[in-house]
Amino acid sequence: MRHAPASERVWDPFVRVFHWSLVGLVVLNLWVLEEGEAPHEWAGYAAVTLVLLRVVWGFIGTRHARFADFWPTPARLRAHLLAWRRGESRTATPGHNPLGALMMLTLMGLVLLLGLTGWLQGTDRFWGNEALQDLHEALADGLVVLAGLHAAAALVMGRLERTRLVKAMFTGVKERY
Question: pLDDT at position 2, please?
Answer without folding.
Answer: 53
